[in-house]
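Bug #77: duplicate submission created two jobs. Keeping one. Sequence:
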Amino acid sequence: MAHTLGEFGVVLMVGGSIAGETKTLSIAIYDRVQAFDMAAAHVMAALLVLCSLAALAFVFASDRAHPLQER
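Kept job's structure:
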């Protein structure tokens, strides 16, 4: 299963990056690391983690507020 999720992530990362038009955050972090701008890469990575945690907190909170069925 982990392999499948990894493949899905690669497809999104590469497929979601149209040169000159769009850039995924993972590609932007990679570009910063390649340019040896570690401070900017760390900031982007930390923001990505915070956004992910906020999304998870929202999903868990909404699940508790509106359960579909008794457990």
